[in-house]
Amino acid sequence: MSNKYYVVPSHAEIYNKFRPSPPQQLAKRLVNYLTEKVTPELLEQAVDIGCGGGQSTEILAPYFKKVLGFDASEAQIIAATRKNKFKNITYRVGNAEHINCADSSVQLVTTCHACQYFDLPKFYAEVERVLTPGGVLCLYGYALPQPMCGDKQLSHIVNKFYCDTLEDYVFPHSKVVYLDKYTSSQYNNIPFVAEPLVRDEFVHVVPSVSVSDLVGYASSMSGFQNFKKQVGAEKASQVLNNFQSEIMSATELEGDAADIHLDIQYTYFLLMGRKSPAAS
Asked: 194 CB contacts (<8 Å, ≥6 apart)?
């Protein structure tokens, strides 16, 4: 797996603190699609690739006897294991191109906000190998956060921060998920999927997020981390302060950034493809 941006422990900590957990609505959608052709009682094992700190892994725990989360970053796996509260979830260091599971042993493979970093042909071959007949692969992610304060839409400030302030420092892989939402052919032509891929989008609102936490999210972006690496911590801190000031000004509220709360809209998009039930 080519994702090397969250290997540093300090970045892993920021990422896990400020990134959203996928909603149960998403997990239910995946399981509903899976069980159209796989008996619910046979949901033995799911695998989450590029699991990070486990936010995307935990939502699968209620539906499978065993869930494995793999990430190339040891720092992420340490963080995920430390906060793991589920007896049926195990986290391991591993990558997308060599999934440490037996052939035809997994009913669901998921990857959240991560597959843009994979060697996709090798990943697809491994997914085909480990999936049971009728098993499902789901690629999903979320667009840039859209903060709201009452009826005030503040998404233009986030868009400007990402597209303008960080423009020269944002990695192409990041744009694939935030801006393109996995619409290019490499994500829509999965070799082992015979049926047309199912694409869904929905909006999930996370209520009462402080301005401070939104700024924390901005600091977790790989583009910002690259900016910080290139220009130094002092200038990076100034850019974050400017971003916070713009958000605070737009709310037209008085107080500390930790005490001003916003609702954050996340647009989730997912692609689901099924291995042929007749596969041997």
From this structure: 276
How many Å is the maximal CA-CA distance in the chain?
A: 64
Hunting for tokens 């999930």 — which residue is that?
204
Amino acid code (one letter) for 233: A
Structure tokens at 51: 């699991």
pLDDT in tens, 250-267: 999 999 999 999 999 999
Q: How far is CA 214 from the centre of its chain?
A: 16
In SS3 terms, the chain reads as: CCCCCCCCHHHHHHHHHHCCCCCHHHHHHHHHHHCCCCCHHHCCEEEEECCCCCHHHHCCHHHCCEEEEEECCHHHHHHHHHCCCCCCEEEEECECCECCCCCCCEEEEEEECCHHHCCHHHHHHHHHHHEEEEEEEEEEEECCCEEEECCEECHHHHHHHHHHHCCCCCCHHHHHHHCCCCCCHHHHCCCCECCCCEEEEEEEEEEEEEHHHHHHHHHHCHHHHHHHHHHCHHHHHHHHHHHHHHHHHHHCCCCCCCCCEEEEEEEEEEEEEEECCCCC
Strands 45-49 and 198-210: unpaired
Q: In angstroms, rounded to a whole number, what is the distance separating the alpha carbons of residues 248 and 14?
A: 21
Q: Tens digits of per-residue pLDDT, 51-98? A: 999 999 999 999 999 999 999 999 899 999 999 999 999 999 999 999
Tokens found for residue 213: 């936490």
Assigned CATH class of 9-274: alpha beta
Instruction: Using CA atoms of 223, 23, 189, 195 in order, give the dihedral in degrees to the nearest 10.
Output: 180
Quick one: which of 280, 268, 277 has its CA closest to 20?
Answer: 268
How many whole angstroms separate alpha carbon 115 and alpha carbon 110? Answer: 9
Give residue limits of the domains in the chain.
Answer: 9-274
